[in-house]
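Support case: user asked for a sample of complex input and structure output to validate their parser. Sending the pair below.
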Amino acid sequence: MLAVDVKNIKKTFKTKQDTVEAVKDVSFEVKKGEIFGLLGPNGAGKSTTILMLTTLLQITGGQAKILDLDVTKDDKLVREKIGVALQDTGIDNLLTGRELFFTTARLWGFSKKDSETRTNELLELVGLTEAADRRVKTYSGGMKRRLDLGLSLVNSPEVLFLDEPTTGLDPGSRRVLWDEIKRLRDSGVTIILTTQYLEEADELADRIAIIDEGLVVAEGTSDELKASIGGDVITLSFNSEKEVTLAKELFPESLQEKNELRITVEDGASKIPSYINELTENKIDVSSVTASKPTLDDVFLNVTGYRLEGTAEEVSQSSSDKKEN
Amino acid sequence: MKTNISFLTQLQILTKRLVLRVVRRPLAELPNIFISAFFLFVYDGALGGVFGGSAQGTPFDFANGNFVNFILPVSIVSASVSGGASGIYLVEDIESGVFKRYQSMPISKWAIILAPMIVGAMRVLLQAGLIMVIGKIIGADPAVGTIGYFIVLSIAFLWGMGFAGYSVAAGVRSGSSQGAQAASFLFFPALFLAPTFVPREALRGWLATASAYNPTTYVIEAMRAIMVEGWINDMIFKGFIAAGSFAALTLTFAVLSARKATEKA
């Protein structure tokens, strides 16, 4: 049995002015005990997908099942089996960490005694025992995220949804949270997380779906996605826009980004001399050349036409062209 | 995991959490209490000399010689209004994402909506109780005896629930703290288009007409019957009916608004 089975789900928001298709067509499957990453930029439809799967938004079309339960028809049963930590942390700042865990445990049906036990377990799990009796408003961003993660675990969920769990955190706090997420996966929890960080998807996710403009544009393990590019990535850097434009005319199959051209070829290192020769013959100065294995960044660029982190500048070749390559 | 707690237990847990929030923000709560008590002193100080003991035997003797008895209901009604402004709790939860967290759990959405109303009503009881204690200290003495305080408190509770329902509905509909606070403008017409400072017979023209349609009028008159005149049952009954109907109406409004707000988009 799959932990999550999503088939062609859609979400359309209708306003007085127009209709917005936040999620156009998203399908994926998640096996039990897997970390599945939904990778995409802001506005790609990741959070809307999570809201639909966690029963907080009505699905406009398609079907989604969590542990074989229909998200639309069996929403109450689904809620009993999942844990949710949304992007905007729903934390009461006036209460202490201990009070929040205790209240949440009581709402999940634990007795007072069991709620105390569960509170202590979770405080320890997320490393907040020392800060347990302080009001949450005094917590750092990283502590609040860990608290949020802990609160989503009170009911020992079989499937955990984490919507951008590390957004806004410093690298140290991000690493701590990653370790906790991996530990949860190792204990058998299925995790679906959204992220806009390539590094995070690469580090955590067993499989990744890249979402762009409400569509899944690529899916697989990190290695599969990288392999799908088909070879090594040669990066040619130039000193001026004029030179990069001339070089682009020489290598039309390349992807241009600012003053760089990226060419995907088999056995990249051996091809570098021929590229250099061709540039030299055409009197185009190249400032540096590198050959590397593709990264998720390259995959993202390849399937969407722009980079995820930093500027989202469109590269010269349209994404549809690239998908055909 | 399956939740196995009853609706009432959920309500109790959610209410307790809101009470903790109220207690931890005393500065946000104290002004309401002090303002109502302050007005009691001001009304008594400014008008008690004219309409109090010295008015006995004159046409202005509508307080039966004890102006504190006459004006105490106004302070209580005013406290009920401000105390019932509980929509803000719900809006804060919506804004902070706590509301969504609860929605993602298998707990009753009605418990989520009712908890702030109960806290609002508890605030009303506390504020009205404090004002009665102050009133007693400065000379209030219900015409029906000590039991009068409890009857007045019951009417105040219903009236406060009415405003709590209105406030929650306004909060849910606006979805913002400002919206919930702005909705409290109703307080002014409710309080002042009524026989606030003089009996209804002394009001003239449009104000007399408006006050006849304002449920606050009947609430104040019922409290005044208890405090000033004695067991005038039809007035007391009308007060309970007015406060109860207002509460029922606004609670329905709140429930309908909440249903709309908690519907999946």
